[in-house]
Amino acid sequence: MSGKTRHHAPRPAVTAASPCPCGLDASYGDCCGALHDGRRTASTAERLMRSRYSAFAVQDADYLLRTWHSSTRPGSLEFDPGMRWTGLEILGTTDGTPFHQEGTVEFRAHYTAHGRADSQHENSRFVREDGRWVYVAEV
Predict the structure, then answer these.
(1) SS3 call for 99
(2) What is the pLDDT of residues 94-120, one digit of tens each?
(3) Which family does it belong to (predicted)?
(4) By the 8 A CB rule, do 57 and 83 touch?
(5) Would you say the C-alpha torsion 131, 127, 73, 52 has a positive or negative sign?
(6) What is the pLDDT of residues 58-88, one digit of tens each?
(7) Phi and psi at residue 86, in whole multiples of 5°?
(8) Residue pair 36/29 in contact by the 8 Å Cβ criterion
(9) Which residues, listed in sequence order, are joined to residue 29 by a DSSP beta bridge?
(10) Quick one: pLDDT at residue 66?
(11) Distance between CA 11 and CA 127 in Å, rounded?
(12) For 1-139, where are the E strands, in sequence order?
């Protein structure tokens, strides 16, 4: 480690009463926080996608790994301290309802990386594993 000190703006704390990062009109505690702490499970692929986006926003690596398909799950995750997730747009879904076993969610996730605004566009595939929705991979 070098002798240089890097200063980052403090990350705003997301509390149970904060607006949910996923963009739904609910508090974090009543929305994605309930999935992150295991009080509820995602009923649809879109709901899982939203909760995973929120997990990136609050840096909940355990939840992300728990909701990743066993065949594609990485061994660990590290977050870029210079990245802030700033908004989620759901562009479309295919299947992925409580009555399906698989589905896709197309989305655009907005972020700033080291002060520069950008977005990530992806179409993600989700399946049920042991009865629960999990992320498989980008389609």
Answers:
(1) coil
(2) 999 999 999 999 999 999 999 999 999
(3) Belongs to the UPF0225 family.
(4) no
(5) negative
(6) 999 999 999 999 999 999 999 999 999 999 9
(7) -120, -10
(8) no
(9) none
(10) 97
(11) 33
(12) 83-95, 102-113, 116-129, 132-138
